[in-house]
Design goal:
The complex is a heterodimer of chains A (768) and B (426). Chain A has 30 helices and 21 strands. With 768 residues, chain A is α+β, with helices and mostly antiparallel strands. In chain A, the strands form nine sheets. In chain A, strands 13-14-21-17 form a four-stranded antiparallel beta sheet, with no helix packed on it. In chain A, strands 16-19-18 form a three-stranded antiparallel beta sheet, with no helix packed on it. The radius of gyration of chain A is 30 Å and the shape is globular. The two termini of chain A are 49 Å apart. Chain B is an alpha/beta fold and 426 residues long. Chain B has one domain: 3-Layer(aba) Sandwich (Alkaline Phosphatase, subunit A), CATH 3.40.720. Chain B has 13 helices and nine strands. In chain B, helix 6 packs parallel to helix 9 and helix 9 packs parallel to helix 11. Chain B is globular. Chains A and B meet through helix 8, helix 10, helix 11, helix 30 and strand 13 of A and helix 1, helix 2, helix 4, strand 5 and helix 6 of B.
Chain lengths: 768, 426
C-alpha cells in the first residue's frame, strides 16, 4: 500500500516538473540543491554514502561539476560538497527516458539521447545497482532498498578459469622448454580492459586463438620431442614418463587417473598410426588442453558458501602473481606436501619467489601495462625527426626500465615513492648517447637533476610523446589516468571547435596553451596539459632539451584537482615528487595491483577488499613487495565464493535486458497494483498475437511475436504458438514448454502484464 | 546457397493459435521479393579509421552522374566508379566519438536482446550462410593490435562485447589457408587425422571441466568448444577447389603498406579458392597512430584527422593519407575483378564489398554522414551516388543482410531504424 502511494507521488512530482518546465518556480530552485522532498528520511544520507562516495565521486564528478563538461546538465556535483547534486539526482530518478528512469538510463547507455561521457554503469554492474536502489527509494518510496551487500572485505570473488595471456604463455613455454624470446609474437593479442591484458572474464579461446594454439602445439611438440632421448621401454612407460614430467608442469598439477587413461589411449592410437610419433602426439595434445591453457581457481567442495583453493591452484596463483610465469618444481612439490595450505607455508614460498630473479617478470609485466611501456615498439615516430629511434635504442630503453624496476622492488625492497623518484638507474647501448651517459654495456648510472624515477625514463616519455615532438596532452593524461586513477571522458562530440591556427613559429607549449584556453576543451584539458607542460624539458623520445626550435623551454606547470598532489610544479622531477607523496597515488597503485594481480574489475568484484588494500597501502611504508604480500594474504587469494545452486534460467541469454527489465519493473509493478482487481491470470479474447519472421536460413529462423492487449482491463498474457521447429532461443519471454503441437510462452517480469491498449513483443529462434 | 523464396519462408513459419501471424509477413513488412531474388554470394568488409573531411570526401553529380573532384579523397576510385555505390548521409544515430563509432559501426548498437544478438554484420551473415564453408568467416587486419584488443581496436563481434580478433600476420593467415592444402584430387593430408585426435582430447577435457563450473565459466568453455568446431571444419576440406591458386608465401615486411597488400592478396585468394564467403580487412583501428611516411607524411594519421580547416596544409596531409586508402580500396576491387568466379563471371560480380568508417567528420568526433562506399555484388545498380539524408545506419546493415539473401528487417538497435534502404534496390 505504502509503495503504491509513493509511486503515485513520484509520478505527480515528475509531471509537475514537466508541466512547469525547467527553471520554473520551486522545482527549479530545488534543482539547484536547496531543498527537495523525498519519501525516506535517510535518502540524503544514502545518496552521500552509497551513491556519491563509491560511484559519483569516482566516475562522474570529472564532468558533472561546475565548469565541467556536464556542468550545464541537471546533475552537478562537487568535489568538496558531498551534498551537491542530490536534488538533481532525485529529479533524474523520477524522469522516465524510454521506460527507464533517466538517472539509470544515461550512464547505462540506455537513454535515447545517449550519454556523452560513454557507458559507465551498464545493467548488471554494481554502479547500476547503486543507482537502481536510489531510484527505488526516491521514486518508488522503497526505504529498504539497498545498493548491495554491506562491505565485507573477507568476501572473496568468483570461481574463475583464467586463460593464460599471450605474455604468460610465452614466458611459461620459454621457461619449460628453453625457447627463444618472442616466439609467440604471432599469437592473437589479448583483450585489454582498464589497461591490463589479463581480465579473466574476457580471456577467451576464440577461433583465431584455437587455430594458432593448434599450429603452435604441432610445431613445438615436433621440435621438443626431437630433442628427447628415444624411449626404450614399453609404450605405457614411455607415455607415463611424459605425463609425470612435462605433463605435470604443463597442467601445474599431477594428472588424474582419467586424464592419464585419455593420454595413454592417444599415445596408442598415434603409435598405431605411425610408430614413434606417440610422445609427440601426447605433448601436442597437452599443449592444447584446457588444463594447460586456463589457470584454474575453482576450489573444492563448498562449505559455508565458500570454496577453498587447493595447493596446486595456490601454487599457480602465487607463481603467476610473483613471477608472471609457471610454478617451478619446488613450488609444485610444496603444493604436493600441503605446505601451501597454511598462511605460514604460503608466505614462506612467496618470500622465496620474491627473492628470485624471476620476480622481475611480474613487475615488468605490470609496469609495461601500467605506464604503457609495452607499446614502445609500435610507438609511431617520424624517422626524419628522430633518426636515433631504432630497434637498438628501443631495446636499451626497455632494458633500463626492466632493470630499474627490478632493482627498486626486489634488490632494494623499495617503495612506490622510490619507483617515482629514485635516480639510480641502468643505462647502456644507444641510450647512453640519449642520456649523455657512457655507451656500451648496461651499467648503473645516476640520472641528472632534470630526471627522477620512472616517469622521466625515455621508454615512458617516448611512448607518451608525439611522432615529431613532445605531447603535453599524452603525458598529462598518463599522470591523470594511470597515477591518479581519474579516467577522463572522451572529447565532446558535435561541437565545432575552432582553435587558433597552428603557428609554426611558436613552441609546443604556446600552441597547446592556446588550444587549452577555449571551451569546451578547457574543462578537461586543464586536467592534462598543465601537468604535461612540466615535461616539456624532454622531446618526443625522451632526450632532455633546454630549447625547442629556438625557443627556450618553459617547464612550469600545475596539477589541478588532485587532492594533496595539487599544486604548481616546475619540471618533471617536481611532478614526480608530488605524486610520490600523494595518498591518492598510493591508493591508485594499490587498486591497479588488485586489478592486475587477480584479473578482475576490482570495483565490481572486490570493492571491499580493494578499499582495505588501498587504505593499508596508504598507511604503510609503501613497499611494493609489501603490496604483493598483502594481496596473497587476502581471502580472495585462497578462497572463492561457491556458485549459487544452478536453477533453470529462462532469461539467461539476455543479461543486459534483465537489468533494464529490473528498472522498468518498478513502473510495471505500480501499474499492476492499480489493476490487480482485474486479475487476468491468463489472456482471454482480448489479447492477440502477431508473428513476424525476421530472418530465416535453411537451418532455421528467428521471429518476433507482438502481443497486444485490446481489452479494457490489464491482462497478464500467455500465448501458444506453433513454432515449426525446435526452439533454440527465446528472449523477453519465458518458454513454458510444449503443449501438444504448440509451445507456450509468458512474459518476463517487466512485460508479463499489459495495460489496456498496451503491447509488447518477444523473440524466438527455431532450428529445423 | 539457393535464394530464399516465398515458399520456404512461409513453410518455415509456425501458425499461431491466438492470432494470424501471416498477415504482416507477406504484405509490406517482409522482403520476400519475388522479382528481386538476386543475391550476392560473398561479403567483404573493408575498414579504414579516423573519419573523414566531408568537404574533401564528398563526390559531385546526381545519382547517376557520379564523379570525384580533382584532388578529392575518392578521386583514386575514378577508374572503378562504375562499380560503386557511394552513400552520403548515413548516420549512426545517438552515437558519437571514436569508441562509440567503432562499437556501433558493424553492430548497429545491438545487444543480447536484438535480433542480431550483438553480432557485427559480417559475423551475423557468416552465422547464416557460412556454415558449410571451410571458414565461416575470415578476419584479417593490418597493425590492429599494438594496443591489445579493446573497443577501439576491434570491429567484429560474435556477441555483445565479445570480439572476433583479426589475424594481423600474413604468414599466419597463409598457414591457416594453405598449409597442408593438397592439389585437387590428391589424398587428404595424413596430419589432419592426428590433429583431430588432439582436438578430441581437448573436447573431452572441456566437457569434464565444464561439469565443475557455474554458468559464466561454462559459457567461456562453450566459446572454446565452438572455436574447436570451427577449427575442425577448417580442416574439413583437404584439397584445393579446382582452379584455386594458392597465394605465394608472404615474406615478413615491417611496412604498413606492404602488410596491407599481402593481406589483400590473401583475402582475395581465400575467396577465389572457395574457402570462405565472408571476409573483412581492418586497416589499423580508430585513433590509429600510423605515420604514412612512405607518402612523405610526418604526423600520425589520428593527429592529422583532427586538423582544422584553418590549417589547409595539415588538412592536405590527411587527404593524402585518405587518398592512399582509397587507392587500396580500388586495389581490392581490381583484384576481385581479375579473379574468376567458378560459377561464372568475376568475383566482383558476386561479392558485395563495403568500405566502412567509424566517424563522419573526424574533427568533430561525430558519427553523422559517415562515409560508406559499396561495390560489386550484382544486387544493386552501381555507378551511383545516393543522398541518404540522415538514414540510420541500421538500415544500411539490414540492406547488406538482405543483399546476402537474408530476410531480417532489423539489425542492431531496432529503435533507431528498421527495414532496408529501398533506394539501393531502385
Amino acid at each position: 500500500m505504502k509503495r503504491t502511494m509513493m509511486m503515485t507521488m513520484g509520478w505527480l512530482l515528475a509531471a509537475g516538473c514537466a508541466a512547469g518546465g525547467p527553471g520554473d518556480g520551486a522545482d527549479g530552485e530545488s534543482e539547484r540543491g536547496a531543498d527537495v522532498s523525498t519519501p525516506c528520511p535517510d535518502d540524503r544520507a544514502f545518496f552521500v554514502s552509497e551513491v556519491r562516495a563509491p560511484l559519483l565521486a569516482k566516475r562522474c564528478v570529472g564532468c558533472h561539476r561546475e565548469g565541467g563538461l556536464a556542468g550545464a546538465s541537471r546533475l552537478v556535483l562537487s568535489e568538496t560538497d558531498e551534498r551537491a547534486g542530490f536534488a538533481g539526482a532525485v529529479a533524474l530518478a523520477r524522469e522516465s527516458a524510454g521506460g527507464v528512469p533517466a538517472l539509470l538510463a544515461r550512464p547505462a547507455g540506455l537513454h535515447p539521447d545517449g550519454h556523452p561521457g560513454g557507458t559507465l554503469t551498464p545493467p548488471g554492474t554494481a554502479g547500476y545497482a547503486r543507482l537502481q536502489a536510489f531510484v527505488a527509494r526516491v521514486a518508488g518510496g522503497d526505504c529498504a532498498a539497498q545498493a548491495g551487500q554491506t562491505c565485507d572485505a573477507s568476501t572473496p570473488g568468483k570461481r574463475r578459469l583464467r586463460r593464460l595471456t599471450r605474455r604468460e604463455l610465452d614466458r611459461t613455454l620459454r621457461d619449460l622448454f628453453a625457447l627463444p624470446e618472442g616466439f609467440s609474437a604471432g599469437l592473437a593479442a589479448d583483450t585489454v580492459v582498464a589497461g591490463f591484458d589479463n581480465r579473466a572474464d574476457v580471456g577467451l579461446v576464440t577461433p583465431l586463438v584455437a587455430s594458432q594454439v593448434a599450429t603452435m602445439a604441432e610445431q613445438l611438440s615436433a621440435k621438443i620431442v626431437a630433442g628427447w632421448a628415444p624411449c626404450a621401454g614399453a609404450g605405457s612407460a614411455c607415455v607415463d614418463a611424459v605425463l609425470d614430467g612435462v605433463g605435470r608442469r604443463l597442467f601445474r598439477r599431477p594428472l588424474s587417473s582419467g586424464e592419464r587413461a585419455r593420454y595413454r589411449a592417444l599415445y596408442a592410437a598415434a603409435e598405431e598410426d605411425q610408430a614413434g610419433v606417440g610422445r609427440e602426439a601426447v605433448l601436442g595434445a597437452l599443449l592444447q588442453s584446457p588444463s594447460f591453457l586456463y589457470r584454474a581457481e575453482l576450489g573444492g567442495a563448498a562449505a559455508g558458501g565458500v570454496v577453498t583453493l587447493d595447493g596446486y591452484e595456490r601454487a599457480t596463483a602465487l607463481s603467476y602473481l610473483a613471477w608472471g610465469t609457471t610454478p617451478d618444481d619446488a613450488l609444485l612439490d610444496a603444493a604436493a606436501t600441503g605446505a601451501l595450505d597454511t598462511p605460514a607455508g604460503l608466505s614462506a614460498q612467496l618470500e622465496r619467489l620474491l627473492a628470485d630473479p624471476r620476480a622481475s617478470g611480474a613487475t615488468e609485466a605490470f609496469v609495461s601495462q601500467w605506464l604503457d611501456v609495452g607499446r614502445l615498439d609500435s610507438a609511431p615516430k617520424d624517422a626524419a625527426v628522430y633518426p636515433a629511434f631504432d630497434a637498438g635504442l628501443r631495446a636499451a630503453m626497455r632494458e633500463e626500465t626492466r632493470r630499474f624496476v627490478d632493482h627498486v622492488v626486489r634488490e632494494r625492497h623499495g617503495t612506490l615513492g622510490d619507483l617515482l623518484t629514485s635516480r639510480e638507474t641502468f643505462v647502456g647501448g644507444a641510450l647512453g648517447d640519449l642520456y649523455g651517459a657512457p655507451a656500451g654495456a648496461v651499467q648503473p648510472w645516476t640520472q641528472d637533476a632534470v630526471r627522477a624515477g620512472l616517469l622521466t625514463q625515455a621508454s615512458v616519455l617516448a611512448v607518451h610523446g608525439g611522432p615529431a615532438g613532445s605531447s603535453p596532452i599524452q603525458r598529462g593524461k598518463l599522470v591523470r589516468e594511470r597515477l591518479l586513477c581519474q579516467p577522463l571522458p572522451p572529447p565532446p562530440a558535435n561541437v565545432s571547435v575552432k582553435p587558433p591556427p597552428v603557428d609554426p613559429t611558436k613552441s609546443t607549449r604556446e600552441r597547446f596553451a592556446a588550444h587549452g584556453a577555449v571551451e569546451p576543451c578547457l574543462s578537461c584539458h586543464r586536467l592534462m596539459d598543465p601537468i604535461g607542460f612540466a615535461f616539456e624539458g624532454f622531446d618526443g623520445i625522451g632526450r632532455a632539451r633546454a630549447t625547442e626550435a629556438g625557443h627556450p623551454v618553459d617547464t612550469r606547470g600545475s596539477i589541478l584537482d588532485a587532492g594533496s598532489a595539487s599544486g604548481d610544479v616546475t619540471g618533471a622531477a617536481e611532478v614526480a615528487a608530488r605524486l610520490a607523496a600523494s595518498p591518492e597515488v598510493r591508493a591508485c597503485f594499490a587498486s591497479q595491483w588488485v586489478r592486475f594481480g587477480f584479473g578482475v574489475d576490482e570495483e565490481e568484484e572486490l570493492p571491499c577488499l580493494t578499499d582495505g588494500l588501498r587504505m593499508s597501502f596508504q598507511e604503510g611504508d609503501g613497499s611494493v613487495e609489501g603490496l604483493l604480500r598483502a594481496l596473497v594474504a587476502t581471502p580472495h587469494f585462497t578462497t572463492r565464493r561457491a556458485d549459487p545452486e544452478q536453477q533453470p534460467a529462462p532469461m539467461a541469454p539476455d543479461a543486459p535486458s534483465m537489468g533494464a527489465a529490473g528498472a522498468a519493473g518498478a513502473a510495471g509493478a505500480g501499474g499492476a497494483a492499480g489493476a490487480s482487481g482485474a486479475a487476468g491470470a491468463t489472456s482471454g479474447d482480448s489479447v492477440t498475437v502477431t508473428t513476424t519472421t525476421d530472418t530465416s536460413w535453411p537451418g532455421g529462423s528467428c521471429s518476433t511475436a507482438k502481443i497486444v492487449n485490446a481489452g479494457a482491463a490489464a491482462a497478464t498474457w500467455q500465448v501458444s504458438l506453433e513454432i515449426g521447429g525446435e526452439l533454440t532461443d527465446v528472449w523477453n519471454a519465458v518458454d513454458l514448454g510444449a503443449k501438444g503441437p504448440t509451445r507456450a510462452f509468458r512474459g518476463v517480469e517487466w512485460n508479463a502484464s499489459l495495460p489496456p491498449g498496451g503491447s509488447t513483443s518477444f523473440g524466438f529462434c527455431v532450428a529445423k | 546457397m539457393p535464394p530464399i523464396s516465398r515458399r520456404s519462408l512461409s513453410l518455415g513459419l509456425g501458425a499461431a493459435l491466438l492470432a494470424s501471424p501471416f498477415v504482416d509477413l507477406l504484405s509490406g513488412g517482409g522482403r520476400a521479393r519475388a522479382d528481386a531474388k538476386k543475391t550476392a554470394r560473398r561479403l567483404v568488409v573493408f575498414f579504414t579509421p579516423n573519419g573523414t573531411v566531408p568537404s574533401r570526401w564528398r563526390p559531385v553529380g546526381g545519382e547517376s552522374s557520379l564523379s570525384f573532384p580533382a584532388g578529392s579523397i575518392l578521386e583514386p576510385l575514378t577508374p572503378v566508379k562504375g562499380d560503386l555505390i557511394v552513400c552520403d548521409g548515413v548516420d549512426f544515430v545517438g552515437v558519437s566519438n571514436h569508441e562509440g563509432g567503432m562499437a556501433a559501426m558493424l553492430t548497429g548498437g545491438g545487444d543480447a536482446g536484438s535480433l542480431s544478438r550483438g553480432m557485427s554484420v559480417d559475423q551475423f551473415v557468416a552465422s547464416k550462410i557460412g556454415g558449410g564453408d571451410r571458414f565461416a568467416s575470415l578476419e584479417l587486419g593490418v597493425q590492429t593490435s599494438a594496443w591489445g584488443g579493446n573497443v577501439q581496436t576491434r570491429m567484429c563481434y560474435s556477441a555483445p562485447g565479445a570480439f572476433v580478433p583479426p589475424d594481423d600476420d600474413p604468414a599466419s593467415v597463409h598457414a591457416r589457408l594453405f598449409a597442408g592444402l593438397a592439389p585437387a584430387g590428391a589424398p587428404a593430408d595424413p596430419r589432419v587425422a592426428r590433429r583431430r585426435r588432439a582436438l578430441d582430447v581437448a573436447r573431452e577435457e572441456l566437457a569434464a571441466l565444464s561439469a565443475r563450473l557455474g554458468k559464466e565459466e561454462r559459457d567461456k568453455l562453450g566459446v572454446h568448444l565452438a572455436s574447436l568446431d570451427k577449427l575442425d571444419a577448417s580442416w574439413g576440406v583437404g584439397a584445393a577447389a579446382a582452379g584455386c591458386q594458392p597465394a605465394p608465401m608472404p615474406v615478413a615486411k615491417p611496412s604498413f603498406a606492404d602488410q596491407g597488400a599481402q593481406q589483400l592478396d590473401l583475402l582475395v585468394a581465400a575467396l577465389a579458392c572457395g574457402m570462405t564467403r565472408v571476409a573483412s580487412l581492418q586497416w589499423s583501428h580508430t585513433v590509429g597512430p600510423q605515420v604514412f611516411d612512405w607518402l612523405g607524411l610526418t604526423e600520425g594519421h589520428h593527429a592529422l584527422s583532427h586538423i582544422d580547416d584553418s590549417n589547409p596544409s595539415g588538412v592536405e596531409q590527411f587527404v593524402k593519407a585518405e587518398r592512399w586508402y582509397a587507392s587500396q580500396f580500388a586495389g581490392l576491387i581490381d583484384r576481385l575483378r581479375a579473379a574468376p568466379d567458378p560459377a561464372g563471371g568475376t568475383l566482383l560480380d558476386s561479392t558485395l564489398v563495403v568500405w566502412a568508417k567509424e566517424l563522419g567528420d573526424g574533427r568533430l568526433h561525430e558519427c553523422k554522414s559517415v562515409p560508406f562506399v559499396m561495390a560489386g555484388g550484382g544486387v544493386w545498380r552501381t555507378g551511383r551516388l545516393l543522398q541518404l539524408n540522415g538514414t540510420p545506419h541500421q538500415r544500411l546493415l539490414v540492406s547488406i543482410c538482405q543483399a546476402m539473401g537474408l530476410t531480417n528487417q532489423t539489425f542492431g538497435d531496432a529503435s533507431k531504424g528498421q527495414g532496408p534502404v529501398e533506394a539501393l534496390w531502385s
